[in-house]
């Protein structure tokens, strides 16, 4: 329907209509008042806009705060233990026939002095040698500032348990390079002298003795020195990386090129074990595997290597470009295989053993007998967990 023409349908003012009195075309004496009313309307509109923006901003802040409380908070944890839900498994009362030979690396930031000391006292010291033959390192980047460098120097002097990457800025986007360096450290001894290279985050607490006993019980047939195996809590992805950023690059934001291919499982980065056989294969690749991947893709990178060993030598596997780094239209590509042969890997998604603490993160659960690696704990909570009556006997000595 079209709008009416002429006077038909127009708004007709009443004789006493205030708008008629204030119409500048009908009353010249009202211009001052009209100006003030227009000014009032403008100010009112501005106030409404500012109020709406303020309320929108406030809502966003409250929403972010609520999400942070759910996923990232360090508020005290309550009702998180489930030891009383089941009887203690018998296998946890017995040392394995042969100890688990573990090369452990802990991803840490330079400033986490207290956290590293907590991990030494609660998780690392006092592990039974009948359970685990343990070698470990904290992996940190370059310290910046005189005070930080001095503290790192004396910490390293006191404990001799730090792998310091002096050519690496200690920022999130270089975490993938830390993970690669961790595997390089694990691989400095022959692969037949240890079982697994293991990497954990600094807010993860692992019952290493229970881990060794549980692996022998749950997976008695695995042979990590002869087989390709990865054990972790898993997610999935489909990106495959290609080595395009050289080592020694100083730009923290540069990232290896990637394409998409078949879906695969990848470890959530807070804790994962890679068999010594797989570790050796990863480090044997020439050129080196892509390891310049921006956070939070650093754990996806691990899974992409494992999947690449299986798929990249298969000419029938379809890989394609992605719009994030290649203008449309997308097309099929043929990435260079990581290694000159196909290798399949046993992927173990250990949901019961590896999880976030209840109330924090997307993979949370209550801590029970099977919980061998628990993520998102504060230093104080690590101490409380370590001193639990149910598990304190898993270490030779109490916390120092």
Automatic annotation (TrEMBL):
It is a single-pass type II membrane protein. Its EC number is 2.4.1.-. Belongs to the glycosyltransferase 31 family. Keywords: Glycosyltransferase, Golgi apparatus, Membrane, Signal-anchor, Transferase, Transmembrane, Transmembrane helix. One of its GO terms (cellular component) is Golgi membrane. It is found in: Golgi apparatus membrane. This is Hexosyltransferase.
């Amino acid at each position: 329907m079209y709008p009416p023409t002429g006077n038909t349908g127009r708004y007709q003012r009443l004789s006493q209509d205030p708008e008629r009195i204030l119409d500048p075309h009908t009353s010249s004496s009202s211009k001052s008042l009209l100006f003030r009313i227009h000014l009032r309307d403008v100010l009112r509109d501005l106030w409404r806009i500012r109020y709406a923006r303020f309320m929108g901003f406030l809502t966003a802040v409250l929403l972010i705060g609520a999400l942070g409380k759910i996923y990232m908070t360090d508020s005290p944890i309550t009702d998180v233990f489930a030891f009383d839900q089941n009887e203690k498994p018998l296998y946890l009362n017995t040392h394995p026939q042969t100890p688990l030979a573990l090369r452990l690396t802990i991803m840490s930031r330079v400033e986490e002095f207290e956290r590293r000391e907590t991990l030494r006292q609660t998780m690392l010291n006092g592990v039974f040698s009948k359970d685990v033959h343990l070698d470990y390192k904290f992996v940190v980047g370059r310290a910046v500032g005189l005070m930080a460098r001095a503290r790192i120097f004396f910490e390293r002097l006191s404990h001799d348990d730090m792998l310091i990457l002096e050519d690496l800025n200690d920022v999130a986007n270089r975490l993938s390079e830390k993970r690669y360096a961790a595997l390089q450290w694990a691989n400095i001894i022959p692969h037949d002298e240890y079982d697994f290279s293991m990497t954990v985050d600094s807010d993860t607490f692992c019952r290493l003795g229970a881990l060794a006993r549980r692996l022998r019980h749950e997976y008695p047939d695995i042979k990590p020195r002869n087989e390709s195996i990865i054990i972790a809590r898993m997610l999935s992805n489909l990106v495959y990386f290609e080595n395009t950023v050289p080592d020694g690059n100083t730009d923290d934001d540069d990232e290896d090129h990637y394409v998409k291919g078949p879906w695969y499982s990848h470890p959530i980065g807070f804790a994962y074990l890679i068999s010594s056989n797989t570790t050796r294969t990863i480090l044997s690749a020439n050129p080196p595997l892509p390891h310049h991947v921006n956070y939070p893709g650093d754990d996806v990178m691990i899974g992409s290597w494992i999947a690449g060993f299986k798929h990249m030598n298969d000419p029938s596997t379809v890989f394609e470009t992605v719009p994030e780094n290649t203008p449309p239209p997308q097309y099929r590509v043929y990435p260079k295989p990581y290694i000159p042969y196909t290798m399949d890997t046993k992927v173990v998604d250990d949901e019961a053993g590896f999880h976030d603490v209840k109330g924090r993160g997307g993979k949370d659960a209550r801590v029970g007998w099977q919980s061998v690696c628990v993520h998102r704990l504060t230093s104080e909570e690590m101490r409380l967990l370590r001193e639990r009556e149910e598990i304190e006997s898993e270490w030779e000595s109490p916390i120092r």
